[in-house]
Amino acid sequence: MTREANNEPPASARAEIARQKMLSAALDVFGRYGFDGASTRHLADAAGVNLQAIPYYFGSKEGLYLATAEYLMMRINTHVGDMRARVGAHLLALDAAGQPLDEAEARHFLIEILQTMVTLFVGGESESWARFLIREQMEPTEAFTRVYQGLMRPMIEMGRRLIGAILHEDPASEHVRLRTFTLLGSILVFRVAHAAVLAQMEWDGVGPEQVETVRGLAAELVDSIGSPKGSAA
Questions:
Q1: Which of 17, 68, 85, 130 has its Cα between 20 and 30 A from that of 51?
Q2: pLDDT tens-digit profile of 122-144?
Q3: pLDDT at residue 197 greater than cutoff 90
Q4: DSSP assignment of 38-100, as one string?
């Protein structure tokens, strides 16, 4: 009986399915236990594969860890990639035409970015992502370098460009850099301080209603950027 008649996927497809299972499991295990605390046995068991699958697909535990960082970037990019490309293309077009970024337009883009972050990081799907990223923030490795260069840096610099346009300041200034991190932190706190948020807000959990509430807050935070008219800068 042929493979097609048996509805069995080809070997390449089966290999990719196994690889994706291992990466998904590794993201959770590495996030919970760190690189040193995650044994190859634990990683293999979590993915439902044998120990030899790790060297077969990734070369080593270190190779799996770096591949997990790349996998995390891919997962996040499925949510933010189109938006990032669209906003980035608009900014490049303005630069090519020698035109400044309008403040109102900058606010619109910044709200869109923050609300996308809320949907991405406040919901339950990002729990394992956050664990992995927080560990890399505390003790950065080559995985951090890859995630920072490939994902974090471009998004932070885009945020700086938008905030600089709103404040009419140089995006490279220390003040704009600090304002950018403060704004991003105002959203990420709902993930990294999840237990405290639930306790203080008296929420049983974070569902669609809570996500929409935080999305509304994101718009308020962007609206509040800049000095009120008539006040000192």
A1: 130
A2: 877 788 899 999 999 999 999 99
A3: yes
A4: --HHHHHHHHT--TTHHHHHHSSHHHHHHHHHHHHHHHHHHHHHHHHHHHHHHHHHHHHHT-P
- Confidence at residue 12, expressed as pLDDT on a 0 to 100 scale: 74
3-class DSSP assignment, residue 230? coil
Which residues in 155-176 are b (16+ Cβ under 10 Å) and which e? Answer: beebbbbbbbbbbeeebeeeeb
Separation of alpha carbons 69 and 66, rounded Å: 5
* Of the candidates 129, 126, 124, the residue with the CA atom closest to the CA atom of residue 147: 129
Which residues in the chain belong to E strands, given as ranges?
none
* Contacts of 65 by beta carbon, 8 Å cutoff, 6+ apart: 26, 30, 35, 141, 143
